[in-house]
Write a structure and sequence with these properties.
The chain has 422 residues and is α/β, with parallel strands linked by helices. The protein is built from 14 helices and twelve strands. It has helices at 17-20, 61-71, 89-92, 114-123, 125-137, 221-233, 251-276, 283-289, 307-319, 334-345, 348-360, 364-377, 382-396, 402-416; strands at 26-32, 35-40, 42-49, 52-56, 79-83, 107-111, 160-162, 165-170, 173-179, 188-192, 197-201, 238-241.
Length: 422
């Protein structure tokens, strides 16, 4: 069984493993004069000024009360401006908890692409419920719509939209906003020059960048890397990331994290495109032929996303939905194919026996293919459902990234209910 990198961070960053983790929770921490950071799953940065507070991100709605309580220990001022680094629910849905009852309306700034994102969420409420149940819970149940706050528009939407860049002052403190396609097409990173503080949102998260999420919309690792290099060129002293602990007053470490992450993304893109240029083979052959980068740096461990998924996202952008395998252009139904395979090998029991043997031998990928066939051909018998679920739970235990772990756990949960995952 693979060791989980979440349990083996090296102290390469000059910080303890607890501070380095993607899952870091804590605060409030003073990261610069009159500037504080706190994180409950996602991070919020509070800049106190003589004219009021500037917030970068606001957390999940259901966790924002805790974040506000932490940061309000350091300032009781009104919220003058809130900046949403992007429209994901752990960043743009919690502003209400920070607002004072008698304060003037806060200005809310975001990139112009955030509104189409919220519209898409409104149109796909149940779809997102199912995706997030799999991704975060490893569950087959579409969770209650409020669990992840992922649906529709936030209570406090943007009042100012910008295009490529925007600079403004609050209380004599300058804030520079830059658009960068990365995890989303509406991503903003924020730099406060006078305090040397960079807020990259989810463009830096103490883990392999979330540039390949298997269930979600297109990511942009090539633009992401350019944005990281632009941030590094500004020589920030402090980084307050979208997830994980802050880097405080350490410009050398800040530059190293930004440039190494850019290198990592560029290498995946470069190697993936080189293989696509070699005759555009089937997508799975490209992925299996790739030499994927590995890092010992604690900010580049596959604790949430992973390199293979990023490569697949590159292929999706440049190669479309057709996998390159002719039978998959207009395929038969999964059930028809699975039934035929079971018939050829002598029945579902034979498929399961072979799948169990492969799983026991450590060939989890091939074992899962056969397990899928067995479940799709005959989902009713309890013994089939239990056997397939056991194979997927065993595979989940070998994975390192949260996405892979939970998608395989979700596959086990679907199998137990007699529902093929496809």
């Amino acid at each position: 069984m693979c060791m989980n990198p979440r349990d083996q961070f090296q102290d390469l960053a000059g910080q303890s493993p607890e501070e380095a983790k993607f899952f870091w929770t804590g605060g409030p921490i003073e990261v610069a004069p009159r500037t504080h950071f706190a994180s409950l799953f996602s991070g919020v940065t509070m800049f106190d000024t003589d004219e009021g507070i500037v917030l970068v991100d606001t957390g999940l709605r259901r966790l924002s009360g805790g974040l506000a309580a932490l940061l309000r220990q350091k300032s009781a001022g009104p919220i003058h401006t809130a900046i949403y680094t992007h429209g994901h629910v752990d960043h743009a849905f919690g502003l209400g908890s920070f607002l004072l009852a008698d304060q003037a309306p806060a200005r809310v700034i975001a990139h112009k692409n955030i509104l189409p994102r919220f519209e898409r969420y409104e149109q796909t409420r149940l779809h997102n419920a199912a995706l997030n149940a799999r991704q975060f819970d490893g569950s087959a149940a579409a969770k209650d719509l409020e669990v992840y706050d992922t649906f529709g528009f936030p209570d406090h939407g943007p009042t100012v939209l910008y295009d490529s860049a925007l600079s403004f002052e609050v209380g004599g403190v300058q804030f520079d906003l830059h658009h960068c396609k990365g995890e989303t097409d509406d991503h903003t990173w924020v730099f406060c020059p006078s305090r040397g503080v960079l807020c990259p949102g989810d463009l830096l998260i103490w883990g392999v960048p979330n540039a390949g999420n298997p269930q979600k919309t297109q990511r942009y690792p090539w633009d992401w890397a350019k944005g990281l290099r632009q941030m590094a060129a500004l020589a920030p002293r402090t980084i307050c990331p979208g997830h994980g602990g802050p880097v405080i007053d350490d410009p050398a470490l800040a530059r190293r994290m930004l440039t190494e992450t850019a290198d990592y993304l560029e290498l995946i893109v470069e190697r993936t495109l080189a293989l696509m240029e070699n005759g555009s083979p089937p997508h799975v052959d490209i992925v299996r032929s790739l030499e994927l980068p590995r890092s010992t740096s604690p900010w580049l461990q596959p604790v949430y996303d992973e390199a293979e998924f990023i490569a697949r996202n590159v292929i999706r952008y440049y190669g479309g939905w057709y996998s390159g395998r002719p039978s998959e252009l207009k395929p038969a139904s999964r059930k028809a194919l699975a039934t035929e395979m079971a018939s050829l090998v002598g029945g579902v029991a034979a498929l399961l026996d072979r799948a169990r043997g492969l799983s026991a031998a450590g060939d989890h990928a091939l074992a899962c293919h056969l397990a899928d066939f067995a479940l799709e051909a005959s989902p009713e018998p309890v013994q089939v459902r239990e056997a397939v679920a056991a194979i997927y739970r065993k595979r989940a235990a070998t994975e390192t990234s949260l996405m892979a772990i939970n998608l395989y756990r979700a596959a086990a949960a679907y199998a137990e209910e007699g529902r093929p995952f496809a």
